[in-house]
Design a protein that fits this description.
The complex is a heterodimer of chains A (113) and B (115). Chain A has 113 residues and is mostly beta strands. Chain A contains no helices and 11 strands. The radius of gyration of chain A is 13 Å and the shape is globular. Chain B contains no helices and 11 strands. In chain B, β4 and β5 form a beta hairpin. Classes of the chains: A mainly beta (113), B mainly beta (115).
């Protein structure tokens, strides 16, 4: 079974620039999550999708972050404009739905200079 | 929202000894408690999870216990090996109806197993 795919794996940008991350979940997984993991901390949920609908985006900084999952499969997370404190690993995870294990992708490591 | 506290932040044990990591949570509605292992530069990998209808679960050298009354759960690793060295995260989540779990993670425990 193929795992969760993410790209790019690394990204370096300057502050105030824009950046986008892509995630392809495990086939058949209805639920998709984006987490932000700052160095030395646990992942923090940014947004949760069920198919192409948003379930929870309460911790997403909506003034600069946006995410979409238009066809209920792949998802993109965008930051515009980026700040220094956005430097982190952005993890995508997917699950089959209620009470099912979440599987994480390899993450995108973002450095904002 | 849910708040998960994890202790200790670092743990060093000798090979063959046991390691215990403890977590507490704040939301009594939480009913799913997974543990993830994350090696340096790698993705978090689920090692064991427990749901609120059981008090203990074991998988070979790894066990998790849950005390819902006290709102704490613990990870136990027996006969530790150097390859157990990693950062371990606990998490807790109340369910969103039928749409899966949004995990609230602890800050992690860096476990070092020395030969």
């Amino acid at each position: 079974e193929a795992g969760v795919a993410q790209s790019p794996r690394y990204k370096i940008i300057e502050k105030r620039q824009s950046v986008a991350f892509w995630c392809n979940p495990i086939s058949g997984h209805a639920t998709l999550y984006w987490y932000q993991q700052i160095l030395g901390q646990g992942p923090k949920l940014l947004i949760q999708f069920q198919n192409n609908g948003v379930v929870d985006d309460s911790q997403l900084p909506k003034d600069r972050f946006s995410a979409e999952r238009l066809k209920g499969v792949d998802s993109t997370l965008k930051i515009q404009p980026a700040k220094l404190e956005d430097s982190a690993v952005y993890l995508c995870a997917s699950g089959q739905g209620a009470q099912e294990t979440q599987y994480f992708g390899p993450g995108t490591r973002l450095l904002v200079l | 929202g849910e708040n998960v506290e994890q202790h200790p932040s670092t743990l060093s044990v000798q090979e063959g000894d046991s390691a215990v990591i403890k977590c507490t949570y704040s939301d009594s509605a939480s009913n799913y408690f997974p543990w993830y292992k994350q090696e340096l530069g790698k993705r978090p990998q689920l090692i064991i999870d427990i749901r609120s209808n059981v008090g203990e679960k074991k998988d070979q050298r790894i066990a998790v216990t849950l005390n819902k009354t006290a709102k704490h759960f613990s990870l136990h690793i027996t006969e530790t090996q150097p390859e157990d060295s990693a950062v371990y995260f606990c998490a807790a989540s109340p369910p969103h109806s039928n749409s899966g779990y949004a995990l609230n993670f602890g800050k992690g425990t860096s476990l070092l197993v020395t030969p």
